[in-house]
């Protein structure tokens, strides 16, 4: 067979390259994200001390994203996100939302379950916005750096509260004063202030979730400190964050932060130095046990877990053993689609294993199962658990097939999401507005940063 003729000496030098390039597929369109998207994300997180304002930012951001897509007739979509990021973000939302929709069919309170499902539809466009915020290098730097800065401010504020011994942090005191000036009443009631037993920080003494929030978002601060200041910066950020997490009192957040150190520290320190770090952490816990009555009380309560009787175990778990037994009753009664999203409190009296006995959490029924798997199974049934597992499998598959560069840029979000949904722990309610919104935010940050196209790095 005749060989292809070589290009003549008079042909342009680039002729061969052009001929070969014509046979290749055109390069993908560069992903630029949306320049204002990071502002929406950071505003939402920064306003968590006022959940109503944070929800307003979320809803307005979702509407803005819909308007942007509508005005562009979806032509701007591929430039906001890669096709893979669109798909994974939407799939993770579906894994969260479809179970609550199906659970409304025969829920204990069908009207409420349907209302929850309808309201949560706003999360989908907001998740697109969050993913678009980290689709470009500039957006990731602003978003991840902003989250690290917000967390550093909250930690400094909580440390000042711990040193002063007050029930309010400096930041929350200023927020409460502004609330008093505007509305004539503070952020918390007198009865809420009377039962404060831990560090509240910027979230305040009537919203004692600081430990969980700090622990779940700590990867953004630790990775930023490590990149900026090296090992010394990472160790300093770890020590200060760890003190706040312990003083915040939530033992679930202690486990979460330990997982953060495990996932982020082994690559930086190696196993031997990481074990030494955990030993130093245990020593610091002993010091805090001696110096803080609140930490001492929680460690004493935790020690009851070795008790042989059910009462001791329930006391060590702050009543969760009773709640988990009730969740098992709901799962047995509604195995397919559960009692309905946020229907746990209505179903609890009928499944309470100790009716009439005073609860360790105060008056009223338990509000949720305090454990991810039990919450999903009791409120959304086997169908819900199947979809949650499918979402987890998709997220893992995306990580497994991503290249090293993609994994590196998504690592802080991956660690934050993984420790938040770690199943062998106790949890806040994932179908609540507060914790559900933060968990979906982390999912979108993970999908958007992992599946951003490399061309956007230019």
UniProtKB/TrEMBL annotation:
The chain crosses the membrane at residues 40-67, 79-98, 118-135, 142-163, 231-262, 382-400, 434-452. Residues 237-389 form the O-antigen ligase-related domain. It is a multi-pass membrane protein. Pfam families: Wzy_C. It is found in: Membrane. The keyword Ligase does not apply. This is O-Antigen Polymerase.
């Amino acid at each position: 067979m005749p060989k292809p003729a070589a290009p003549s000496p008079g042909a342009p030098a680039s002729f061969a390259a052009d001929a070969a390039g014509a046979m290749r597929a055109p390069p993908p369109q560069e992903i630029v994200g949306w320049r204002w998207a990071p502002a929406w994300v950071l505003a939402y997180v920064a306003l968590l001390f006022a959940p109503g304002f944070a929800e307003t930012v979320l809803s307005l951001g979702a509407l803005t994203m819909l308007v942007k897509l509508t005005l562009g007739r979806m032509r701007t979509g591929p430039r906001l996100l890669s096709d893979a990021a669109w798909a994974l973000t939407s799939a993770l939302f579906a894994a969260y939302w479809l179970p609550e929709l199906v659970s409304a069919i025969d829920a204990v309170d069908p009207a409420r379950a349907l209302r929850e499902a309808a309201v949560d539809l706003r999360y989908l466009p907001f998740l697109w916005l969050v993913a678009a915020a980290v689709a470009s290098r500039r957006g990731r730097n602003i978003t991840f750096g902003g989250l690290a800065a917000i967390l550093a401010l909250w930690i400094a504020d909580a440390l000042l509260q711990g040193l002063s011994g007050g029930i309010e942090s400096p930041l929350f005191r200023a927020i409460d004063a502004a609330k008093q000036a505007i509305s004539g009443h503070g952020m918390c009631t007198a009865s809420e202030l009377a039962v404060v037993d831990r560090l509240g920080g910027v979230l305040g003494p009537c919203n004692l979730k600081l430990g969980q929030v700090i622990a779940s978002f700590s990867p953004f601060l630790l990775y930023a400190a490590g990149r900026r200041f090296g090992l010394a910066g990472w160790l300093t950020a770890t020590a200060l964050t760890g003190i706040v997490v312990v003083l915040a009192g939530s033992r679930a957040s202690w486990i979460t932060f330990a997982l953060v150190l495990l996932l982020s520290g082994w690559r930086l320190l190696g196993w031997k130095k990481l074990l030494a770090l955990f030993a130093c952490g245990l020593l610091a816990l002993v010091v805090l046990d001696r110096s803080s009555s609140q930490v001492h009380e929680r460690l004493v309560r935790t020690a009851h877990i070795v008790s042989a009787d059910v009462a001791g175990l329930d006391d060590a778990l702050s009543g969760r053993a009773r709640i988990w037994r009730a969740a098992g009753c709901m799962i047995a009664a509604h195995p397919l689609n559960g009692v309905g999203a946020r229907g746990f409190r209505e179903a609890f009296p009928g499944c309470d294993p100790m009716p009439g006995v005073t609860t360790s959490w105060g008056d009223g029924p338990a509000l949720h199962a305090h454990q991810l798997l039990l919450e999903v199974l009791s409120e959304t049934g086997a169908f819900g658990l199947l979809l949650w597992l499918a979402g987890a499998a998709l997220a893992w598959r995306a990580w497994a097939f991503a290249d090293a560069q993609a994994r590196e840029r998504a690592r802080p979000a991956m660690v934050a999401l993984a420790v938040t949904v770690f199943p062998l722990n106790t949890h806040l309610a994932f179908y609540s507005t507060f914790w559900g919104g933060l968990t979906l935010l982390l999912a979108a940050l993970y999908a958007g940063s992992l599946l951003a196209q490399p061309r956007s790095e230019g």
